[in-house]
Amino acid sequence: xxxxxxxxxxxxxxxxxxxxxxxxxxxxxxxxxxxxxxxxxxxxxxxxxxxxxxxxxxxxxxxxxxxxxxxxxxxxxxxxxxxxxxxxxxxxxxxxxxxxxxxxxxxxxxxxxxxxxxxxxxxxxxxxxxxxxxxxxxxxxxxxxxxxxxxxxxxxxxxxxxxxxxxxxxxxxxxxxxxxxxxxxxxxxxxxxxxxxxxxxxxxxxxxxxxxxxxxxxxxxxxxxxxxxxxxxxxxxxxxxxxxxxxxxxxxxxxxxxxxxxxxxxxxxxxxxxxxxxxxxxxxxxxxxxxxxxxxxxxxxxxxxxxxxxxxx
Length: 313
Prior knowledge:
Keywords: Cell cycle, Cell division, Chromosome partition, Cytoplasm, DNA integration, DNA recombination, DNA-binding
Subunit structure: Forms a cyclic heterotetrameric complex composed of two molecules of XerC and two molecules of XerD.
Family: Belongs to the 'phage' integrase family. XerC subfamily.
Strand order of the largest sheet: 1-2-3
Organism: Acidithiobacillus ferrivorans
CATH architecture of the largest domain: Orthogonal Bundle
Number of helices: 14
Subcellular location: Cytoplasm
C-alpha cells in the first residue's frame, strides 16, 4: 500500500469513529502527510519499504529543521497510531515503530525569583485600613505572603477556608491534587498580614461565606482573579508580570538552597514522588553556574579578566 493512501485511509477512519477530536485529527493529518512527503523524497512510497532507520532519519531531519521536541513526540505518536491501525487489518505488516524510542521531552526549568526579588515583592505598600481599597490592599498582600510562605498552588490558595487556619500551631490545612490533604507552615509575616486582613473581612463578607479570600461582593475569590491580582502586583513592585506558580517555585528553591533537604521540600510542596521535587536541584545547579561564572577566577569570565590583566601588565 502507498504511504499516502494509508495515511488518507487512517485519517478518514479517525473522522468516522467520532472518538477523536477534530484538533487531534488535523494534527495527525498534518504530521503524517509531512512524513509521507519526506519518505517519497527518499524514494520510499510503499508502507512496506519503511524501516526503523527511515523513521529515525525523519525525526532527526525534523529536529535539525528546528521542530520542538514536543512536536516531534506528536509526530511519533501519529506514526505509531497509524501502524497500529494498519496492523489491525494486516498483522503480518512489519512495524518499524516497535523498538524505536520516543524523543525525550524537554525539561523546562520553572521560573523563580531571587531572594532579593522576593524581598522587594513582599514589601507591603503602606496605607490606613479604613475603606474598601484598604481591604483589597491587605487581601492582596496576604495572597503574596501565603503563596510564598507556604508554597501553595493557586488552586489551593483559592480553596482555603477560614477554618483551615491553625493559629496555635502556625499552620494551614491545604487540599492539594487528588484531594490529598497536607499541613504546611505559615511564616510570621504571613500571620501579620492575615491578622490585618481578617480585621476587615467581616465588613465585606457575604453572610456565612467560609472562604478565606473573598472579592468586594463578599464571595470566594476565583483562581483567575488571583492570577490577575498577582500579575498586576508583580508589574507594580518588580516591573514584570508575575504568575502565582512562580512564587511556589521560588519558595521551594529558596528552602532547598537553605536546608539542602530534598525530602522536606517534597513534603512542603505535597509532591507524590521525589522525582518531581528533584527539578529544584537543577535550579540550584543553574544558579551555582551563574555565581561561578561571575565570581570564580578560573571561570570563563574569570579567564577573560585574567587575560585582560596580563595584557595590561
